[in-house]
Write a structure and sequence with these properties.
CATH superfamily of the largest domain: Intergrase catalytic core
Helix content: 40-55%
Number of helices: 14
Order of helices and strands: HHHHHHHHEEHEEHHHHH
CATH class of the largest domain: Mainly Alpha
Largest sheet: 2 strands, antiparallel
Radius of gyration: 30 Å
Number of strands: 4
Number of domains: 2
Shape: globular
Strand content: under 5%
Structural class: mainly alpha
Length: 317
């Protein structure tokens, strides 16, 4: 058995576990990077450490994906007793360090920018690209889907009004969007007409041909609109954060938001939904009620003299 055989069998095991295509692609990237770096050298503790040091230029989240992928591969190889021919020691996976990923603030559009964008996209035009952009913007905002989930949808799913996506972990999620979103998607599909592309969201090339829209193209579309409006650029993931934040602003509970995002628990809601700065300021200002009101500094209010005590028991009493 060689390295490629080992990787293929491991990937087959991941598919049997129901790991999503996005996870498989991310893990394949990490393992291929390790294979290229090793360049035929045997895997050892020292090589693993040196390889992880070589990932220093990557973001912590990318380094964590790489570490999880390699740990998974080495642990599976040890369990299946398939690594001996390649010199993989049984406990080697334990030497792969899992980097800490710092918590980041939720990245949501501020209310004024969101209002400007919604006014911008509210206009109706016959241009296919415009119809797609406005429909996709509101779809991502109200569904709070990951862009990979939204772009995996087929046209026939929406036309049957049954929208179900497969999430990162392999589970299914019923997609819920607003009535206005359905209206904008209907407008988009009417202008699009019939074509041979099964994907719901399409890119139109310069020669007029159409293909399934990619996440990279979608984010380039948002940057183009941001330049036209003179606002900070945003991404598809920012729209997911914004949708969750707006739900909280409009009275949804954390459980409501977690279910809408497709999360099983409440722990990750804080990563996606921000408490607006104005709301935080309002809450903090309420603490001023605890502070007693004092005269202004430098004021010369004359103190009221204490009342004289009345003496009793004198003549005439």
């Amino acid at each position: 058995m060689d390295w490629n055989d080992l990787v293929r069998q491991w990937q087959a095991a991941l598919r049997r576990r129901g790991r999503s295509p996005n996870t498989l692609n991310a893990y394949a990237w990490a393992v291929n990077r390790l294979s290229t770096w090793l360049d035929g050298r045997p895997i050892s503790v020292g090589q693993l450490r040196a390889w992880q040091d070589s990932l220093a230029e990557l973001r912590p989240a990318s380094r964590l994906v790489a570490a999880n992928a390699v740990r998974s591969l080495l642990r599976w190889a040890a369990r299946e007793r398939l690594g001996s021919e390649l010199g993989i020691e049984p406990g080697l996976w334990e030497w792969v360090e899992l980097p800490t990923v710092p918590e980041r603030l939720p990245r949501a559009l501020d209310p004024e920018t969101l209002r400007r964008l919604l006014r911008w996209f509210a206009a109706r035009r016959r241009d296919l690209g415009w119809q797609r952009d406005r429909a996709l913007f509101l779809f991502l905002l109200t569904s709070s889907l990951r862009v990979s989930e939204a772009l995996s949808l087929r046209r026939d799913q929406v036309e049957r009004r049954q929208i179900v996506v497969t999430q990162k972990g392999g589970g299914e999620q019923q997609v819920v969007v607003s009535a206005r979103t359905r209206e904008w998607v209907t407008d988009y599909l009417r202008v699009r007409g019939r074509d041979s592309v099964p994907a719901l969201w399409v890119a139109v090339h310069s020669d007029g041909s159409r293909a399934a829209l990619t996440a990279g193209t979608a984010n380039r579309i948002w940057r183009r609109h941001a330049r036209r409006l003179g606002v900070e650029p945003w991404t598809c993931h920012v729209l997911r954060h914004t949708g969750a934040t707006e739900l909280l602003e409009h009275g949804a509970t954390e459980l409501d938001v977690a279910r809408h995002l497709g999360h099983r628990g409440l722990a990750t809601v804080q990563r996606y939904a921000a408490v607006r700065l104005a709301r935080r300021q309002e809450l903090v200002d309420r603490l001023d009620d605890l502070v007693p009101t004092l005269p202004p500094v430098g004021s010369r209010r004359r103190a009221t003299p204490p009342a004289r005590a009345r003496v009793t028991g004198g003549p005439g009493d």
